[in-house]
Amino acid sequence: MFTAWDGYARVDYLPEPGRLQVTLLTIEPTVYRRLRPGLACAFAADDPAGPPTFVEVDMGAEPPYDARILLRGQLMSVVDELVGLETGTREARLRLNELTELAARWAPYRDYVLAPDQVAGRNRSGAWADGLWALFSGLGLARALLALPPPVESTHRGPEAQGVETDWREVELPGDLANAAGVEPRCEWAPYRDTSYTGGEDTGFLVRATGIPGRETRLMAGLDDVRGDWVALEPEEEGSSHLLADLPSDPGTEEPSLRFRTYGEER
């Protein structure tokens, strides 16, 4: 069943604690899920292709980069107006093409909310600015990081870092995203635990991919967490087709999802 959308939306901004809420009006039953700290959303339960019916972002004083991409267009214009006024509620009427674009941007989250046990097998991309993105949830990243023993000696996140040598796990990028990024669909990730140059401890994840010969590679990876950082995968050495990104993460943090996106001239 597909929901009939009339496009009416309400945008609420509460300056304390800096919370944004976007609601698309519908009478259909919805499924709500907290995606990560600071981000929650809901989708119509019987609409596997629809836009979010509700989005809540804890954003502080201004919308973060991810929110600007995911809510771009008329909704983001309303958000900016409310942030400038420092409080309030506004209504908007989205056209059909705007609803379709909103649904495309939120597709990876929609799969995760409506069918979390199947999301790894769906392997579907969503729209991101002028490119594509994908989300991999339930990989057990936090558990893998906690399972690593303390490093014996410093390797400074090289290939001998604790965990990297033996703990590579695979994810399969959606075909359209991999092609747009100029990489092979199969990517790998591994937790690492290493001694820093200052004597402390560095922990996180390395992500690697293989570039397609003769193609320019445009792939970024990140953890779907409150920081929202994206890191470009760069050649391990000059001229190499093996690409690598370092995603720092603290042990004991809430389980993050792993995400990938393409990028253009501006990252």
Description:
The protein has 2 domains: 8-116, no CATH class; 132-262, no CATH class. It has helices at 65-70, 74-85, 96-105, 107-114, 119-122, 141-146, 175-181, and strands at residues 8-14, 19-24, 30-36, 39-44, 52-58, 88-93, 126-128, 131-136, 169-172, 186-195, 201-210, 219-224, 231-232, 234-235, 242-248, 257-262. Helices cover 20% and strands 36% of the residues. The strands form 3 sheets. It has a 6-stranded antiparallel beta sheet with strand order 3-4-5-2-1-6. A 5-stranded antiparallel beta sheet has the order 7-8-16-12-13. Strands 9-10-11-15-14 form a 5-stranded antiparallel beta sheet. The two termini are 38 Å apart. It is built from 7 helices and 16 strands. The model has no long low-confidence stretch (mean pLDDT 87). The longest helix is centred in the N-terminal third of the chain and has 12 residues, at 74-85. The protein has 267 residues and is an alpha+beta fold.
